[in-house]
Amino acid sequence: MKGSRGLITKLLIPIFAFTLSQPVLAAPIELSLDDSIALALKNNPDITIAKADREKSLWAVKQAQAAKGVTVSYVHTDERYNTPPTYLIPRYTWTTKFDNEVSLSIPVYSGGNLESQIDQAKLNLRVADLNIDATKQQLKQSVTAYYFNVLQYRNELQISQETVDNYVGHLKNVQAQYDAGMVAKSDVLASEVSLANAQNSLIKAQNNYQLAVSSLNNAIGLPLDSELKLKEDLKYEPYSLTLDDCARYAMANRPEIAEYQAKIAIARDDVKIAKSGYRPTVEFTAAQDWYDNKLPGSKNSNWLVALTLSWKIFDCGLNNAKVKQAQSSVDTALEQARQKRDAILLEVRQYYLSMQEAEKRIDTSKVAVKQAEENLRIAEVRYNAGVGTNLDVLDAVLSLNQAKTNYIQALYDYNTSKAQLDRAMGVPVK
Asked: Is 298 within 8 Å of 97 (Cβ atoms)?
């Protein structure tokens, strides 16, 4: 028995050493899934970039609108030049002139060019807003997956620890029976090997859990070595919507659908801009000028009011080529929108069916866990009674480990598929 205790202690040393080697961290940060998503929305650089793009688009609207407004300019010119000799003045004459001009201009008619540019800028702002929504939804789905990863590995770590505990307890029993001469040495050796393998799996589970925590920390903007205490666990909540319901919701709410419709409108505005080259432009100008041969040049006054019409009569087909290019861009945008719509419907179907498949596995694996627990209990009783084999117990422990792992995996797959389905449908992030 003394040898058995020494052997068990020796087998457990790697686990204790692994635990003691970990750094001592501050008090764990308690997080719910909603807390994690809120932190990511606040700290993640993807949101900051999307908002910066939106700000850029907003100023592009103001720029396009300003092009249709009044422009006031001031020009000051200093000149000194000579005049060649003439019959009346038979020598070079030097002249100094200082000129000041204030002018006002406003486009009266642009053939639809400026109006289309303003409309395009507003549509680009709309696209930027939709991109923020899509970025938030993608970020929510990613953080949810990281959160569930931590829960999955936390549960697998617990399962691995339970498996080690089961093997430790069984090894004690086998060693005691061996010391009493009731079983062969091979039973002890087989139990020791199973325990060592379970310990290796436990070490891997501990490492997987720590990596999952670091990944979640990175996604929500916390230091990578922050210790977390998640408030939730993987659970099953029935989903009430049908596949058709999900598809209809996606077509009405997915930001990318509206984004591609805006891109089609932008392409059509490019056609309008190109066609404006066929039309004349009209501009109103008013100017006031002062000039003198001494600074500041304000002695003489002159004014001008003009209404200018400009119309390009012939350009060797240049503008027609621009129109054809723009119309081709509309065709491309229409096809891209159709492809995106089909891709979204495929995503919805894929994640909905994956969720249903995982839901079925939850039920079957839950039953399997109960059966595996009963099988282990029976195997241990039979072995203690001398009518069962050591291999039966070892296999029963391994089967229980696999059944519990399958159950956790089914829960993880169900919850992550549901999160992916929400993103595919365009469920808004509050």
From this structure: no
The verdict on pTM exceeding 0.90 is no
Residue 401 lies in a domain: yes
The CATH code of the domain that includes 324 is: 1.20.1600.10
Using CA atoms, how far apart are residues 7 and 360, in angstroms rounded to an integer?
43
For residue 62, being part of any structural domain is answered with: yes
Rounded alpha-carbon distances, angstroms, from residue 237 to 231, 234, 415: 17, 10, 9
Q: 3-state SS of 329-371?
A: HHHHHHHHHHHHHHHHHHHHHHHHHHHHHHHHHHHHHHHHHHH
- Paired with 100 in beta bridges are 76, 290
Q: Which pLDDT score is estimated for 48?
A: 93
Q: Tell me the one-letter amino acid at 340.
A: K
Query: Each residue of 274-313: b (16+ CB within 10 Å) or e?
Result: bbbbeeebebeeebebbbeeeeebeeeeeeeeeeeeeeee
CA distances from 115 to 37, 96, 104, 270, 320 (A): 41, 45, 21, 11, 20
Does 315 fall in a domain?
Answer: no
CA-based torsion, 191, 196, 200, 205: positive or negative: positive
- Domain span at residue 159? 2-69+112-279+320-425
How far apart are the C-alpha atoms of 72 and 400, rounded to whole Å? 83
Q: Name beta bridge partners: 304.
A: 287
Domain-located, residue 359: yes
230 phi/psi in degrees, rounded to 5: -80, 135
The closest of 131, 113, 105 to 64, measured between CA atoms, is: 113
Q: What is the pLDDT of residues 228-267, one digit of tens each?
A: 999 999 999 999 999 999 999 999 999 999 999 999 999 9
Find residue 30's DSSP bridge partners. 229
Q: CB neighbours of 22 closer than 8 A, spacing ≥ 6?
A: 210
**Residue 337 pLDDT > 50:** yes
- For residue 223, whether the previous peptide bond is cis, meaning omega lies within 30 degrees of 0, is no
The number of folded domains in the chain is: 1
Residue type, 102: V
HSE-up of residue 394 (Cα within 13 Å, Cβ side): 18
71-83/93-109 β-pairing: antiparallel
Place of tokens 């994640």: 351
- pLDDT (0 to 100) of residue 26: 64
